[in-house]
Amino acid sequence: MIKIFRQDNMSIDIEFDMNGNYDLLRMFNELYKKKEYKLNVELDMRVIKMGKREVIKNLVIVCNKSEEKTSFIMRDDNIVWKIEQDDIELGIEKFTECTRQGYFFPSEFIRIHTPKNKRLDYVYCKLVHEMKY
């Protein structure tokens, strides 16, 4: 499970369970090899449109954008997340640590540009554990 949602006007949260952590780590490793990745997420469209809350289950096409300096997410025919090389390398490091430690620390991850926002958004990550009763 991976959920991406807008927390406020300047921050985006990514919540994931351990399966989502493994998927995100695979994604960053594929991006490092310059391959495209299709990530299955629950996405709050406020991340892109800044309007009212609208959560959709969707595939996000993620690709390496080594020629630019800022990662960004946008909506074209699909939802596309282009990640720059330094963020990819950080992603491999942080999601590998999360696998070993069982938590994502610190929660601040990267900065990203989105449509409808002139400033960069902070991306925060959180590993959520399922409650067993």
Mass-distribution shape: globular
Which radius of gyration do the C-alpha atoms yield?
14 Å
Number of distinct beta strands: 8
Q: Helical proportion?
A: 25-40%
Mean pLDDT value: 90
- The fraction of residues assigned to DSSP E strands is 35-45%
**Category by helix and strand content:** alpha/beta
Assembly form of the protein:
single chain
Count of helical regions = 3
Major β-sheet profile:
8 strands, mixed, barrel
Poorly predicted ranges:
none
**Would you list the SSEs in sequence order as H and E?**
EEHEHEEEHEE
Arrangement of strands in the largest sheet: 1-2-8-7-5-6-4-3
N-to-C span: 20 Å
In short:
The chain is of the alpha/beta class and 133 residues long. The protein has an eight-stranded mixed barrel.
Folded structure, characterized:
The chain has about 130 residues and is an alpha/beta fold. Helices cover about 25% and strands about 40% of the residues. It has 3 helices and 8 strands.
